[in-house]
Design a protein that fits this description.
Number of helices of chain A: 4
Number of strands of chain A: 2
Oligomer: heterodimer
Radius of gyration of chain B: 28 Å
Structural class of chain B: alpha+beta
Shape of chain A: globular
Radius of gyration of chain A: 13 Å
Shape of chain B: elongated
Order of helices and strands of chain B: EEEEEHHEEHHEEHEEEHEEHHH
Number of strands of chain B: 14
Number of domains of chain A: 1
Chain lengths: 70, 385
């Protein structure tokens, strides 16, 4: 898929892609290219999954505060 | 009403001669003797529908449950049904028919069921016993069927549950597979000499050995009732006096302590004695023993709900948690949700305005600062799979 093939309008970004971006994984780069220029949103379910993953991995306060404030 | 040469029969289960036993949940039709379907089992006239599966396994076919597609006179629908048969052999001077204590026969079966149930919990990766969403399936997986008695010392042939064992629960594997895997796990635990055996499973094996192993009986030998082939050697495990003692030692640990996370409210703390009192949801009180380096976390967790991870000690009689040697405090994040507002439809622009964002986000700016390589790998592990 190329950026031109991405439909216009806002994009709902799923948990795995957000995780790639927040954890700076190279796997997330192609998705960043496709999402360029779009308004981005996540669902409340994705927000919960990110918190759950952080909880499971026992993040320190830094990681929690990041998601709480982002 | 009935198809010619067929008899009405309530079908489920199996007896040692291959005949299905009765169960009101299923209704099917069973061919009369002499109209066999599988020549290999023709010597069992009443089980014309049964067929030879793998050696040592019992296989028969049955009709499905009564329903719109299973009306009398309708086309027969056969389903193969395979049961894994296992041998439980009690060895000793009195372990033969006519001399063995009748109670020992029952104890052997019940003990084996308990051990398979404990092993099934391990197969499912569950740490709590006797509770949890898979309890019904665990019970089904451990429900053995008495198939018969073999020659030798006292040998019971027992059938593991088949795939049709009823359960309302969603399982990652079928009940029959769970049962079979649990039996394999049990054999592994008995056969290995190390200390890796789960304490709960060890306690169950030790209890099974209370049949007087090392005293009036010599051993219990568990085997697959399957003929050995090049691809599939017969599996065998023996519970003798040495194994009994090892299992007793391992099993006693389950009564002493277990690694768990207790969830509750910390109601008071003594920072001189490094102890605190945790109130559990069921009202029980647990003493929390913590090291000085966890004092700050204890203070922050006071009067709030949190998880307390460590070695939990249990009362030997009531099995209630009594104390925990704390290793870590796990505090959750309380999400604030306006339940009423949640159901109000909002536009994308409205949501953006409320959250003070434009939605124009550069993914590169989303990186969590200060994330170590280890934390990053752990965070992504679930998605890489």
């Amino acid at each position: 898929m190329t950026p031109d093939e991405v439909p216009d309008g806002p994009l709902l970004v799923d948990t795995d892609v957000v995780s790639y971006w927040t954890a700076q994984s190279p796997v997330g780069s192609p998705f960043a290219t496709l999402a360029g220029g779009h308004e981005l949103a996540v669902s409340f379910a994705t927000y919960g999954e990110l918190l759950a993953n952080g909880h499971r991995n026992r993040w320190g306060n830094g990681g929690w505060m990041y998601f709480a404030n982002t | 009403m009935w198809p010619k040469n067929w008899q009405p029969l309530l079908v489920e289960g199996s007896r040692s001669d291959g005949r299905p036993s009765l169960d009101p949940r299923h209704l099917g039709w069973w061919r009369r003797p002499g109209r066999r379907l599988t020549p290999s089992r023709s010597k069992i006239p009443s089980a014309a529908a049964s067929g030879g599966g793998e050696p040592g396994m019992m296989c028969w076919r049955r009709y499905g449950p009564v329903g719109a597609s299973f009306l009398p006179g309708g086309p027969p629908i056969w389903q193969p049904k395979v049961v894994r048969v296992i041998r439980a052999q009690l060895e000793g001077p009195d372990a033969e028919l006519g001399r063995i204590q009748a109670a020992d026969v029952a104890r052997l079966i019940l003990g084996l069921e308990r051990a398979i149930a404990q092993a099934a919990y391990l197969v499912l990766g569950q740490r709590w016993r006797g509770t949890g969403r898979h309890r019904e399936a665990i019970e089904s997986a451990a429900r053995l069927r008495f198939v018969g008695i073999d020659r030798g010392s006292f040998v019971e042939l027992l059938g593991l549950p088949d795939a049709a064992a009823p359960t309302d629960e969603e399982l990652p594997i079928a009940v029959a597979d769970l049962s079979s895997s649990a039996f394999d796990r049990l054999l592994d635990s008995i056969a290995q000499d190390g200390l890796e055996t789960d304490p709960e499973l060890a306690a169950a094996v030790a209890r099974m050995a209370e049949l007087g192993i090392g005293d009036r009986n010599t051993s219990i030998v568990l085997t697959d009732h399957v003929a050995e082939t090049e691809d599939r050697p017969t599996r065998r495990a023996e519970i003798n006096l040495r194994v009994r003692q090892r299992m007793q030692e391992l099993g006693s640990q389950s009564l002493r302590s277990r690694d768990e996370t207790l969830v509750g409210v910390l109601v008071e703390a003594d920072f001189e004695g490094n102890t605190a009192r945790l109130r559990l949801a069921d009202g029980g009180a647990v003493t929390v023993n913590f090291s000085a380096d966890l004092a700050d976390e204890i203070q922050e967790a006071l009067r709030s709900r949190a998880g307390f991870e460590g070695a939990v000690r249990y009362h030997p009689k009531t099995s209630q948690a009594t104390s925990v040697e704390l290793r870590a405090v796990i505090r959750g994040t309380q999400l604030v949700l306006d339940a009423e507002a949640f159901w109000q439809p909002k536009t994308f622009a409205g949501l953006q305005m409320r959250q003070g964002t434009t939605g124009r986000i550069n993914p590169a700016d989303m990186a969590i600062p200060g994330l170590s390589d280890e934390e990053r790998a752990a965070f992504l592990a679930g998605y890489v799979e």
